[in-house]
UniProtKB/TrEMBL annotation:
Protein name: Transposase
Biological process terms in GO annotation: DNA double-strand break processing; DNA integration; double-strand break repair via nonhomologous end joining; mitotic DNA integrity checkpoint signaling; replication fork processing
Alphabetical list of InterPro entries matching this protein: RNaseH_sf (IPR036397), Transposase-MT_Hybrid (IPR052709), Transposase_1 (IPR001888)
Molecular function terms, GO-annotated: DNA topoisomerase binding; double-stranded DNA binding; histone H3K36 methyltransferase activity; histone H3K4 methyltransferase activity; single-stranded DNA binding; single-stranded DNA endodeoxyribonuclease activity
Name of the gene: mle
Any Pfam family: Transposase_1
GO cellular component, as recorded: condensed chromosome; nucleus; site of double-strand break
Length: 148
């Protein structure tokens, strides 16, 4: 939860927490172990524009604004402190569900084995993502537990 306006106490509490986390990271590094997952809808419209030549001095005909796009794809991306670890662009208008999320965990596991084998072998990965339904489903939580 994030308040829209921070009070002086909220601000001081956040400074204390951040300082504490940075101190803890010096003793036992954990920021390198965080893998963050996020989904974002990307809307698009494939507009075909044709070339046209107009007589000098005459105005070009006006073109109407394109309608709101109904075409959208979901980008699912997983990254750590250094770089993206895995991403997937779902089919047009396809939504993320628990089963698909579990498949992404398998692909993330493969990516971790290739890109960060030391992290993968330690089995101390910290997964960070919100509590959307596909993330909070029992099957997804069990699959996430296998990773870290």
């Amino acid at each position: 939860w994030v308040p829209h306006e921070l009070s002086e106490k909220n601000l001081n509490d956040r400074i204390i927490i951040c300082t504490s986390l940075l101190a803890h990271n010096k003793i036992e590094p954990f920021l390198d172990r965080i893998i963050t997952g996020y989904e974002k809808w990307i809307t698009y419209e494939n507009i075909i524009r044709k070339r046209a030549f107009y007589e000098p001095g005459k105005p070009a005909p006006s073109t109407s604004k394109p309608k709101l796009s109904l075409n959208k794809r979901m980008l699912c991306i997983w990254w750590n402190i250094r770089r993206p670890m895995h991403f997937e662009l779902l089919k047009p208008n396809e939504r993320l569900n628990s089963e698909r999320h579990c498949q992404q965990f398998d692909k993330l596991k493969t990516a971790l084995q290739e890109k960060r084998p030391a992290m993968f072998n330690r089995k101390d990965i910290i997964l960070l993502h919100d509590n959307a339904r596909p993330h909070a489903a029992l099957g997804t939580r069990q699959k996430a537990a296998e990773l870290g």
